[in-house]
From TrEMBL:
Residues 34-133 form the HD domain. This is HD domain-containing protein. InterPro entries: HD_domain. SUPFAM superfamilies: HD-domain/PDEase-like (SSF109604).
Length: 158
């Protein structure tokens, strides 16, 4: 996990997290800081193991830790944060030793993480891990959340 840890220490990574935290400080719905990224990484890796998806632990964790990095840009400009996060991830991946097919798998997972069944071997699992990692059942804003507007039940599965 050496390359992932070097990304997590990178000032560019930390500055983007800081900007998202700042914009979400009064948000009553799910936030997108480090806790969410770590939760999503762990659930994603469980899915990788359960479903036999052929990526390394570090590949899965890297995709999850970067998948919402550009969230603050969406608050500021309305631009899709999946696209913005993929753009930011590209530079970080290049600087920290990722390349070839691994880099492509990570970028596809980030870019497609809001779309069910999008292209890429890790992408659909990233889409699901993003949601499954949320402890919605305990959320005080559940009644207002559009994800549960159609009467869906919030339950912990992972
Ligand atoms: Fe997201
Ligand atoms: Fe997310």
């Amino acid at each position: 996990m050496e390359r992932l840890n070097s990304i997590l220490r990178d000032p560019c990574f930390l500055e983007n997290i800081r900007r998202t935290n700042e914009r979400e400080k009064d948000r009553i719905f799910c936030r997108h800081g480090l806790d969410h990224l770590a939760d999503a990484a762990r659930v994603l890796y469980i899915l990788v193991l359960e479903e036999g998806i052929e990526v390394s632990k570090e590949t899965a964790y890297t995709a999850a830790f970067l998948h919402d990095l550009g969230r603050w840009v969406e608050y500021d400009t309305g631009s899709d944060h999946a696209k913005e996060s993929a753009k930011m991830a590209e530079g970080l991946l290049d600087r920290h030793g990722y390349g070839g097919p691994e880099k492509e798998v990570i970028l596809l997972a980030i870019r497609g993480h809001r779309v069910k069944g999008a292209e890429g071997i890790l992408t659909d699992a990233m889409y699901r891990a993003d949601k499954l990692s949320r402890p919605c059942i305990t959320c005080s804003s559940l009644a207002l959340c559009k994800r549960f507007a159609s009467g869906e039940k919030a339950e912990i599965e992972y």
